[in-house]
Structure formats: C-alpha cells, structure tokens
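Follow-up to my post from last week.
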Amino acid sequence: MKFVDEYRDQEKAEQIAQAIARITTRQWSIMEVCGGQTHSIVKYGIDELLPKQISLLHGPGCPVCVTPLEIVDKALQIAARPEVIFCSFGDMLRVPGSGGDLFSVKAKGGDVRIVYSPLDALKLARENPQRQVVFFAVGFETTAPANAMVVFQAQQQKVANFSVLVSHVLVPPAIAAILSAPDNRTQGFLAAGHVCTVMGFEEYFQLAEKFHVPIVVTGFEPLDILQGILMCVGQLEAGRAQVENQYARSVQRQGNRPAQALMSKVFRIVPRKWRGVGEIPASGYGLSDEFSAYDAELRFGVAGHHVDEDSECISGQVLRGVKKPQECPAFGVRCSPERPLGATMVSSEGACAAYYQYRRRQPDQNG
Amino acid sequence: MCLAVPGKILSITGSDTSRMGQVSFGGVGKEACLAFVPEAKVGDYVLVHAGFAISIVDEAEAAQTLEYFRQIGELGKLEDKQ
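User reply:
Got it. Predicted complex:
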C-alpha cells in the first residue's frame, strides 16, 4: 500500500538504527506517547535495534487503557437498558468495569454493537427511531473531530434518539503531568503523529521550553519511529529542547483547522480522570452547553458515579513510563489479555498487552 | 485507536459537513467523510481515521522523507569505508 510499505524497509531501518548508535554517547530515556507507536515498537522489535543506552518508555496514549473505571461502569449501566442500542469501537468491549465488561452485557441480552465509525451509530439511530442509540465517544484528539461531527449532524438532522457517552482525553496535559511527577524518567518525547495531524504542534512549544525536553512529532511506521528517535537523540546530545516534525507528510504546524473549529463548537475542555493515573485538570473534552441534550450521562442519569480502582495493578506507573510491564508481579500470571486486571493489559495498544503478545518468552532488554 | 490509513480518493459527493468520498485502500473501496479536508480532490491520498479523512498526504514531504532515509544509508556506507 502506498505511503505504508516504503516505511517498513528492513535495510533502511538498520541504517537509521546505526545512525542513532553513531551519535549516542550516553543514556537517554525517550517516551513514545501513542499506543499505536508502542504497538509498532514492540511488534517490529524497534527497541531491540537501538543501542543499549537508549531506553524507550511507553506513554499513556492508549485511550482504551486510560478510560476510567467509572466511565466503563456508566457504559455498562446504559448498555444494559432494554431500549438502548449501545455502539462502540470494538476494542472497548473487553475493558473490565467493576462488574463485567460490555461483552458480558451483550451475553445477557444487551444490544451492544461494534461500529467502525461514529457515523454508523448515527445511521442506526435514524433507522431505529423507537430505540435510544448511544455511541461510546472515547479517544484522543485524533478521534474528536469524528465524534464532534456526529453530534453536530444529530443536532442538524434532529435525531433526538441519539446520544454520546463522552470520555475524550488530551495529550499535552498528560505530557505535562508526566514531566511534573517527582519520579519522572522521561528526557524526550515522540509526540503522536495523528493527534498532531488534527491539533498541529503549536501547543507543544511551551512544554518543550518549560520542561526543557525535545518533542518530535512522529509517525507510526517503523522507519518513521526510528527517524523520530534519531531526531530526538540528536537534540538530547546537542542539549537542545525544540519541537520538530518528523511526520511532515501528514502534520502541519497549525493542524486541521476545519476539524478544530467544529471540535471547539461541540466540546468544551473539562478535567478528566485517567485510569491508573488519576484526575488531570483540563485534560479532556465534554460536550459544550449547546450540545448537552446529546449527553448520554444526563439523558440516562448516570452522572456523578465514582469508583476506586484495583490496587494490585501498576498500570499507572507503566502509563507514566516509571515501570515496564514485566516488573509487575501479576504480569502474565494473574493478569492477561483474557483476564486483564487493568488498563494497559486491555487493548492491543496497551504496553502490557503488547509485551504479553510479543515479549513473553524473553527477558526485557531495556528495563 | 489513533490508527489512520492512507487511501486514494476515487469520487466525491455532497458538500460542507456532508461531503463524502469513495476511498480506495490498496484496492478496497470504502466510504469516508471528507468534510475536514475541503480542498481534497479526486486522486489525492488522504489519511482516514474512524471513517473521517483528517489530512491530505503531502506527496512532496513524503518524497523528501524517503530521500532522507536514502541519504542516511549512503552516509552509513561512507563511514563504513573510512
């Protein structure tokens, strides 16, 4: 496939890894923010190509992983209602709430459906006017334009039986929280290419300056990630802390303006709780007042529900790059993708699930 | 979850917020919303996430990145000889 295959060339990957080795003189810890990048790194063994001094830390950028328990519980409550068709991206269905997951609701007769796009959920609402159709709107900035558009279209088309359960999170406040933590180990960031495709990278300049960390906007294919690491190490070795863009074929400095305009109309910035991390101020989206009629939490009276998380799971430390999955005593023993204890084992983009799938039989080289 | 796949626009219908297109992903056609890429035209490659095009692939930048990879390879070979 064009714009994919040419970024997976093994010989070139080794050449870029050698270029990284040539400029590396000491230990550096670099965090990739996005779960898609984590998955690529572990799947293609990118970390194993790197010199030993470079440690990759896996960040909090998996929306499935960071969706808090209480939102999952709200989804379970709403999905169990007989009048509801509950629509979600497939990877949210196995996320454990306090009592089961969406699959278990489906097994008990709940009408839970997997959709590819939120547009499919809106279509279902138009086709089933006697039912309540709810879409589980999770995701980072990448997914926010899609979810903003369906809410906007629902209002325009007066689709009154449609609503969204919103759990949107934002990357820059998470980066700030990681860098502010006393046990932070991260010295440089690979920023998430598709988040920046939507948002641009202007909001990263002040982060790079305030915390003196290089931030390189990076794509998702193996060569993209290796080049991002090369650029980041180049900055670290030179003592620079700037924002650079590796993924220029998709990301422009100002981002996607039409998408941002619709997002700021439909959403407002709210504090969000991150699973395994806790509440981060101004770190997510909720619906703006103009669109609150489409808020499933209000429509089904589930707002204000709070629950605590399992204490054995160390996903909070994994999500902040403080620990690696294999440092958890439950990893692969009491916690697996079939029976996840927490966030990072749930989605294939979570660091624990990626290690479980690709690294179970070998010791961690970087930890 | 933030996966976005490049595909080529085959046809476009509608306008403004209901601007839709048929997009080919390595030969597999699928409908995508093109409202966020108003300047995209038939033949352009777009990155599609959850049924929405979020950017037009900049072919000149893509070529430049590949050229950069080639130069890194050349540089490595030169240093090996020294």
